[in-house]
Write a structure and sequence with these properties.
Layout lengths: L1 H19 L3 H20 L3 H30 L2 H5 L4 H10 L3 H14 L8 H10 L4 H13 L3 H13 L9 H15 L3 H11 L4 H4 L1 H12 L5 H8 L8 H13 L3 H26 L8 H8 L3 H9 L2 H14 L3 H14 L3 H13 L3
Helix pairs in contact: 2-3, 2-8, 3-6, 3-8, 8-9, 9-10, 10-11, 11-15, 13-14, 15-16, 16-19, 19-20, 19-21, 20-21
């Protein structure tokens, strides 16, 4: 009987120790599960639970990475491993030979995530990256979203900035642009328009289209030649594929227009229009292999067959921007370009609201 009680006691102690010390893989699973629950609760507008699950995700991520770093530290301290040098695959060979399965799993997890080239094939660089993985920028962003919706802009800004400072470990790298958009929106809500401008411009830091001075100069030159063929040249000659910047172009165009900087407003509106136009042209060409751009009227006629693309353009303010391009062009003295663009929009603009506005603009301008 005593032997049985002793065995049961040992079993309970073992279970207790296991519960108190989950593996790194278990912590990773807990962290991901908590984040998914946070997203579900956020979508269900249960912000209290979303906040709790987000904090759990952050805690589990920290515990996971700290455990992984300790495991690797212990493995790499062995003389045979040190003698292998810093090259990741040389280290992996030794760990394989030593049957250090957990260290192998950890290293291979990060290699699968980023690739060896990202770490320059250096185990030291991989370990440095792991330190930054202690943070969970997706969860920090979600907490920022919660505080923003609740009107707690200072807390929201702090969490967005924290997420942005660790953007290098985002699973989807382009999510950093969404964070920048949220920071710009907070500045707008707080009526700090100069800071909003700076944050919108930060979105364009890696934007090759915006930084292409020759392209920007050529687009404005085409508009400013103010000839009857200027509109068709504009849409025949220029393309842009930096679609993540499109909303920033639109917001900056509005900002500069309100500030009286019409030259900048014209530049950013032209960028927004050509960016959206390029995106839609690609979509149409992928669905209709026989389609080829010939003129703007033909483009809008073909577009009318794709209701989902029309709605995409409306959501992204593209039809508004077409009209805005005409307005700013006319106010900048390029009335021929404005008239020819509006003449097409009056007949073919795909949304009734913006079509009616095009009619009014044409009447206002006396064109």
């Amino acid at each position: 009987m005593k032997k049985l009680l002793f065995t049961i006691s040992v079993l309970f102690c073992s279970l207790s120790l296991f519960a108190a010390a989950p593996t790194a893989a278990q912590l990773a699973a807990e962290s991901l599960n908590a984040y998914r629950n946070a997203l579900y609760c956020f979508d269900s507008m249960d912000y209290g639970k979303a906040l709790k699950y987000s904090e759990d995700a952050i805690l589990f991520r920290r515990q996971q990475v700290e455990k992984e770093m300790q495991i690797l530290k212990d493995s790499l301290s062995a003389k045979r491993v040190r003698d292998a040098g810093d090259h990741i695959y040389a280290v992996l060979d030794v760990l394989e030979d030593r049957k250090e399965k957990e260290s192998l799993r950890i290293i291979n997890t990060y290699l699968k995530k980023k690739g060896s080239d990202y770490f320059d094939n250096s185990i030291t660089n991989l370990r440095e990256y792991m330190k930054s993985m202690i943070h969970y920028p997706e969860a920090h962003k979600l907490i920022g979203d919660i505080y923003r919706l609740e009107g707690e802009y200072k807390f929201a800004e702090d969490y967005y900035l924290l997420a942005l400072s660790n953007a290098n470990v985002l699973d989807v790298p382009d999510e950093k642009y969404e964070i920048l958009y949220m920071l710009a929106e907070i500045s707008r809500l707080e009526n700090d328009l100069p800071k909003m401008e700076v944050r919108l411009l930060n979105i364009l830091t890696d934007d090759g289209t915006y930084k292409d001075r020759a392209l920007n100069s050529a687009m404005i030159h085409t508009i400013s030649t103010n000839k009857n063929d200027s509109v068709e040249k504009f849409f025949s000659l220029y393309r842009a594929d930096t679609f993540y910047s499109m909303s920033a172009y639109t917001k900056l165009a509005d900002y500069y227009y309100d500030a009286g900087a019409k030259d900048k407003a014209l530049q950013f509106t032209a960028l927004a229009v050509i960016c959206g136009f390029s995106k839609i042209s690609e979509s149409i060409e992928s669905r209709n292999s026989n389609y080829e751009y010939t003129n703007l009227a033909n483009f809008f006629q073909e577009l009318s067959f794709y209701d989902d693309i029309v709605k995409w353009g409306d959501r992204n303010l593209l039809w508004k921007n077409f009209n805005f391009l005409a307005r700013i062009s006319e106010e900048s003295g390029y009335d021929v370009f404005a008239r020819n663009l509006l003449t097409v929009l009056v007949r073919w603009s795909p949304e009734k609201y913006w079509q009616k506005e095009a009619v009014l603009l044409l009447q206002e301008m006396g064109l």
